[in-house]
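The data layer described in this paper is built around a simple, fixed record for each protein. Such a record has a labelled line for the sequence and another for the backbone structure tokens. For reference, a complete record is included directly beneath this paragraph.
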Amino acid sequence: MLTVSQLTKAYAGRTLFEDASLQINTGDRIGLIGPNGAGKTTLFSLILGENTPDAGSVSLPRGTTLGYLPQESAPSGEETVLQLAASVSPGMASAYKTLREYPDENASEHHEGVAEFMENDGYNLEAKAKRILAGLAFAPTDFERAARTMSGGWMMRAHLARLLVMEPDLLMLDEPTNHLDLETLGWFQNHLSNYSGAILVISHDRVFLNAICRVMVEISRQRLHRYVGTYEDFIDQKQAREEQYLAAYKNQQREIAHLQDFINRFRAKASKASQAQERIKRLDRMERLEAPENPEATVKFAFPQPPRSGQRVITLKNVHQAYGRHVVYTDLNLEIERGQRTVLVGPNGAGKSTLLKIMADIVPIQGGERIPGHNASIGYFAQHRTETLHARHTVLQESLADVSGVSEQAARTILGSFLFRGDDVFKTVGVLSGGEKSRLALVKLLLHPPNLLLLDEPTTHLDMPSIDALIHALRQYEGTLLFVSHDVHFIRALATTVIHIHAGRLTPYAGDYGYYLEKSEASNERSALVAKLHNHQPALATESAPDPAAPKMGMKEIRQQRRAEAELRKAEAKIRRDRQNRVTELEATIIELETRQQSLTDALEDPSLYQNAAKALQLNRELAGVADSLKSASTEWSTLAAQLPASDTDENS
């Protein structure tokens, strides 16, 4: 599908690629990895033709379609969210533009827009776009909102929806999970697992890479190195490869030293001159291995331990918070104790970032009380770095801003450990990359260590070695930690408790992320039914082994349990019958819809129909509605049929 051949590219005297090659085939799932600045985004720009290589080539078969999601700042015009998601071709974009500019249905231009819309299969595309937007957590009321009025994260989701509707031959994603909450991330991973085209993705989320990709391509030392397997497989293979290379290099160096020693000793002796010349020729013909480079620079740091706080670090009482008419919290109560390591989870817009800002006193509360505990000092790491960094400051100036008693030398030492070395400290903040801003914000926390750390998406823009270094430092940190993250690896490594936020309600889980998943997913249909039937006997919801320490049941309790189990079996049998009846109804509905779909399709293929534009428009709309209903009915049938025993579906087929 795509061939990168002997690629060379340099910027400002720095070589990113030299004689680099890569082959991407149909159906490939490739994770593109490497440290920040290695050239991942540059490689994307070369593939897209936005940049030209200094040497080598990028070739695509004619007709191959590419879809690209940038990391940030995808543009948008006047289109609605639905129009943006369905604008998968210049024709559709043009049709939408015409219909926006000429909304009067009597205008000839409006009819031209309708014709172009139908020519591009607009109604089916809109139905598909609605399904994908719903999967990405857009509400139906969002579909007709102007895309430019949405936040940056939601705008990126709309652009992602457009790519998924488009289904290009090669889907190129640059950090696609940055703007997705954990719930939406699960839907997205499942969707990509069934994607028909090839995928090339840049991501620092190893759990996402493991779920999607079966090949890792690392940019290292100006080359593209291909590894088959998951990210963990890549780590193992890379280590083995580097050990083999080091051994080969050392062997070659010993051979070179041995040959050179012979030449130096016997070159001048007539009896050995021919042998010395033969060794000189061997050295000249030898393909020299380059010296192994030191491992790429990574962040190495540890948090200075903060002063000890009181047992209650911060308390919120009856807090009310709203943005205009949108109420985020009403009567919110929360207490954070010393030493907690808590992750906040929940859908985007649930109020996770708002809760951190309330605790950090970044946004004043509109009601209730915010009570910091004894000796509590709070450090806030913002999701959007520009909220806390001054663009005109140099890196050094910004690191020393808002702190006292820290020497320039001490600041430069810590900046050096965060890869700001030499003249890098005199760069202005405004020119820094996302990863550099993240590291600078962490430096500021280090120079004034708090005993309550509030981190909002701290791994965004950090490469994997830096994420590992941050995890290592936070494990040593003795203060209290409250954070938001979509990086499952980061969450599993640090969180010991979880708070789920939804619709202004906080649900705490007194365990790690695995415990939260187990408990939140445990409310399946069977346990919900048991709880409904036997609210006084919640233990029936599970089938765990009996506890030998539990008191033994008497005959009365045994009879009650047997009656409860019999009622449960009856209820489950009724559910099964209801499912079977619904499957039968759906099969009749699907046949009816397919018949109507064929009838409408036949009518629309009649050229004379288009003499009546209004009639053609009506039939197209009806066809789109039928297609949407057919898709919905088929999806429901598949779900219910899969839940029935095989004998039930066999009898029905």
Notes: The longest strand covers residues 312-323. The two ends are 41 Å apart (CA to CA). The chain is about 45% helix and 20% strand. The mean pLDDT is 84.
